[in-house]
Amino acid sequence: MRGWWQEMAGLVMPAECAGCGLPRSVLCARCGARLNGREARRVRPDPEPPGLPPVHAAAPYAEGVRSVLLAHKERGALALAKPLGAALAGVVRGAGHTAAGWGGRGPSGPLLLVPVPSARRSVAGRGHDAGRRLALAAARELRGAGVPARVAPVLRLRRAVADQAGLDARQRRANVSGAMGVAAGVSRLWRTGGPVVLVDDLMTTGASLAEAARAVRLSGGPVAGAAVIAAASRSFENNRNWRGT
């Protein structure tokens, strides 16, 4: 019931910009430009967890970007899924250019967007699966731009994990280490699909993405990289090729 009400409220109620509060605008042009007005950047957390694939992001987790992501994920502003999905698709396109660009060689099927899973209790509490919703929106954008892509929600949490908020990098790695696995029967998907791109809304320490990559690789999945909408500002600074915009 809660999820249905959020869907209706997010679509028909008057809104203000989730980034800056501008009246009657779900996402104003200025805040939208923070998400879609920059090219995808390689980001590296410090310390970088073992096994972390190359990660690209659209924007630092600051300014209105933080407000927009929180509004979608925690406050159920579902109308933001489309612009956020477009931003995520932009990262995928910018980092890989084409499906073949992500893998270089190997599988030639559609690009497989694999969302990092949230705990069931978190999904239930929010009333929606934010990561999967953004992955679906991004896949639609990619297909509209001529890039074959599909969502493969195959990752599962195999044990309980604590809320990552408030944990440092070492604690986050310990919290999620070995926690993820894949759904049964993914071998055929890996054989017929294209490169795997892990997707999430945010990267802070990279612990969850590294664990997701471990689980996919262990099952034989061809992890090419990861794409996120935002990353901690420090991750941008750690990229020697980045120049602030």
Number of discrete domains = 1
Helix content: 40-55%
The proportion of residues in beta strands is: 15-25%
Q: How would you write the strand order of the largest sheet?
A: 1-2-8-7-3-4
Average pLDDT, to the nearest integer? 83
The unreliable regions are 1-14
How many strand elements?
Answer: 8
Family: Belongs to the ComF/GntX family.
Keywords: Glycosyltransferase, Transferase
InterPro entries: ComF/GntX_DNA_util-trans (IPR051910), PRTase-like (IPR029057), PRTase_dom (IPR000836)
GO molecular function: glycosyltransferase activity
Present the secondary structure layout.
Blueprint: H1 2-12, H2 29-36, E1 41-43, E2 55-60, H3 63-73, H4 81-96, H5 99-103, E3 111-115, H6 120-126, H7 130-144, E4 149-151, E5 155-157, H8 169-176, E6 180-182, H9 187-192, E7 196-203, H10 207-218, E8 223-231, H11 233-237
Parallel strand pairs: 2-8, 3-4, 3-7, 7-8
Antiparallel strand pairs: 1-2, 5-6
Short description:
The protein has eleven helices and eight strands.
